[in-house]
Amino acid sequence: MMSDMIIVAVVSGLIASTTALLVQWRLFQRQYRLELSVEAAVRRLLQHKAWRLRTFKTLKYYCSGLDDDELRKTLLRAGAVRFEDRNGIEIWGLIERVQDLLESEYGTSKN
Asked: What is the spatial distance between Cα 22 and Cα 27, in angstroms, rounded to a whole number?
């Protein structure tokens, strides 16, 4: 009698734990999918053939819903690097598309 109650309690606990883990896994997948989607969108904006560099303001406009630091982290994960133009405006470009700027303007080929 007592062992039956213990078995029922253990099985109930396992079912509850499994359900909680599945719910957490789904939430994690949804969040991760969103981050990957935003990162892909940022890459597409920075791969536009007419624009090697984009202002932070433009990127922020197209990626509304992210605060400034979240957008900067997303840009870095997407493979972008930050510059400032002559007026101090923050601009971003994919590292593979702005390698010449890194080497010439900022002299990183010798650093």
From this structure: 9
Beta carbons within 10 angstroms of residue 39's beta carbon: 17
* CA geometry: angle 13, 19, 21, nearest 5 deg: 100
Domain containing 31 — which CATH number?
1.10.10
Range(s) of the domain holding residue 88: 2-110
**Helices 2-46 & 68-77, crossing angle to 10 degrees?**
80
SS3 of residue 91 by DSSP: strand
> In the chain, how many domains are there?
1
pTM above 0.85, yes or no: no
* Contact (CB, 8 A) for 43 and 55: no
103 touches 109 (CB < 8 A): yes
pLDDT in tens, 26-63: 887 777 777 888 899 999 999 999 999 999 999 999 98
Q: Strand order of the sheet with strand 80-84?
A: 54-55, 90-94, 80-84
